[in-house]
Write a structure and sequence with these properties.
Elements: E1 3-5, H1 7-16, E2 19-23, H2 27-32, E3 39-40, E4 58-62, H3 67-79, E5 86-88, H4 91-97
Parallel strand pairs: 1-5, 2-3, 2-4, 4-5
């Protein structure tokens, strides 16, 4: 089961260094604006084996609205049963709506 996380909670996790964020959008979407520190791994090429080293941190997937990132969570869990990723609820749209910075 995919767990959701709010933009507010993710911001806290990122500030504390307790989460790794993976942006699964396409390259043009990522270039147009992304969350600082997010790793870019488009859904079409995403594999569990190529994820950044978590070092005990939470794995969070993110897209524009949370549909693709939900599929990304399911994909990596199917490939590696030890992974328990979170899905950013509402994606980068919710992040920006909460007033948090988006880098271009």
């Amino acid at each position: 089961m995919v767990q959701n996380v709010s933009a507010q909670t993710l911001k806290q996790w990122l500030e504390k260094g307790t989460a790794v964020l993976v942006d699964v959008r396409e390259p043009d979407e990522y270039a147009a604006g992304h969350i600082k520190g997010a790793f870019h791994m488009p859904l079409g090429t995403l594999t569990a084996g190529e994820l950044p080293d978590l070092n005990g941190r939470k794995l969070v997937m993110q897209c524009k609205g949370s549909g693709r990132s939900s599929r990304a969570c399911a994909k990596v869990m199917a490939e590696d049963s030890e992974l328990s990723p979170y899905n950013l609820e509402g994606g980068i749209t919710a992040w920006a709506a909460a007033g948090f910075d988006v880098e271009t």
